Amino acid sequence: MNAALEYLKTNQSRFIDELCDYVRFPSVSAQQEHRPDMEACARWIASQCENIGLDTAIHQTKGHPIVVASTPAKHANSKPHFLVYGHYDVQPPDPLDLWRTPPFEPRIQGRSLFGRGASDNKGQHLAHLKAVEAMLRTGTELPCHLTFVIEGEEEVGSRNLAEFLTANKSQLRCNAVVVSDTGMPAPGMPALTYALRGVAAIEVKVTGPNRDLHSGIFGGSLENPAMALCQLLASVRDKNGRIRIPGFYDDVKALTAFERRQLARLPFNAREYARFLGVPALFGEKGYTAWEQRTARPTFEINGLTSGYQGEGSKTIIPSTATAKITLRLVPNQDPERVTRLVCDYLKKACPKTVRLELKTGHGGQPYLFSPTSPLATAALAALETAFGKKPVLLREGGSIPIVTDFKRILGADTLMLGLALPDDNAHSPNEKFDLDNFAAGMRMGVHLWPALAKACSSVS
Ligand code: BES
Ligand code: MN
């Protein structure tokens, strides 16, 4: 193990250069024009895998390719098998004018590497790959079989990965999945994430008159669709931040006393948090702490709201239509389909008869929860502690990685989430960055993780 750790130290600056090369690909999965960049990026990470001796393949899909790389068969035998999941696609970098340097020209400042995708998720899974490189190159025993699955469609809902898992079930059957695509509460505070929120998307459209009307000539004699939509959406939440939709909370699994104690130990300062977000004051569901609100309570969010004239100056009209893009964040054990139905039923009932309502449902993802006290979780916590030199915390996260429930459903495997992103890494925002100390700690974590997980598996069976 020492040789591998030494190798990591000696090669640190090359690894940083390689992460820069990786970030240089504008692998934006949402935009068709980047298709060739997606292909090139997949080839780049595949060649990284191949160079360290992994059996590597690029699988084409209806969308973007999936890279699969396994330790050679001599490691397979009867050893435990773990999957490492990551994604090489990134969110669109817009709005570009808010970036201090171009998103795909990586720049190092202090201990931060700036660039779109640096932390979400290129740097995080590259750390895992470098840990394996260190072990293989130094002849350090890898007590398990490993398969990297690196996809290119996470940021657009992993449209083709579940099908791939099903088609390759026997090759991918494993004892557990490891994902580093979540966060840490603060620098130097490693975390094991044992729950994620789910998500469900709905588009709401309200239509009134058959064209935009003069608001002086007609205003007052018919409903304004923008007003109707605002009132409809506003009726969803009460002043205490509770969602008023009947049945919305029915399946919510309450936090245990143990969980609430864990969450209460996390650092939080309301004043600093409000300043960090740039809001004049905080708001959230009454009766819950901010950590609980962000990670363990469901929400109804308006992501986009459009109606009427948006150009320069004013225009006196009653708009013909108004639309809203909504996503719900869901928690264990809410079911996206059931909750979507409840929300749609409510909106239909509450919408005034003076306008027409159209609802379009979109992508969804199940919430995820596994036991933070399982032998595998305990082993992962020990590896985190050794790598970071600090006791890790247990975390729920508010974001979603819908494929994680497919790992359970299709492969029967739990997922250990060992995130390396910091709260100010700006995932999905301008000036995304990755902390180079976390990059290094993530590599050390890999070296300690595989022996610990393999041992936990053998002591169970
Ligand atoms: N890495 C994030 C998810 C995440 C972030 C989990 C922080 C926990 C903490 C992932 O890339 C992401 O952004 N997922 C989307 C999924 C959606 C498009 C279905 C999300 O959460 O919005
Ligand atoms: Mn991600």
Question: Which characteristics define this entry?
Answer:
461 residues, alpha+beta, Aminopeptidase, Alpha-Beta Plaits, 6-stranded mixed β-sheet, 4-stranded antiparallel β-sheet, 14 helices, 18 strands, 21% strand, binds ligand BES, binds manganese (II) ion
Tell me the Rg in angstroms. Answer: 24 Å
Mean of residue pLDDT?
96
For the secondary structure, the number of strands is 18
The CATH topology of the largest domain corresponds to: Aminopeptidase
What shape does the CA trace take? globular
CATH superfamily caption of the largest domain = Zn peptidases
CATH C-level name of the largest domain = Alpha Beta
- Give the class from helix and strand content and strand pairing: alpha+beta
What small molecules accompany the polymer chains?
ligand BES, manganese (II) ion
Q: Which band does the percent of strand residues land in?
A: 15-25%
Q: List the uncertain runs.
A: none
Report the major sheet.
6 strands, mixed
Second rung of CATH, namely the architecture of the largest domain: 3-Layer(aba) Sandwich
- What is the topology, as strand order, of the major beta sheet? 1-2-6-3-7-17
Proportion of helical residues: 25-40%
- What is the straight-line distance between the termini? 25 Å
Question: What is the number of helical segments per DSSP (H or I, 4+ residues)?
Answer: 14
Total count of domains: 2
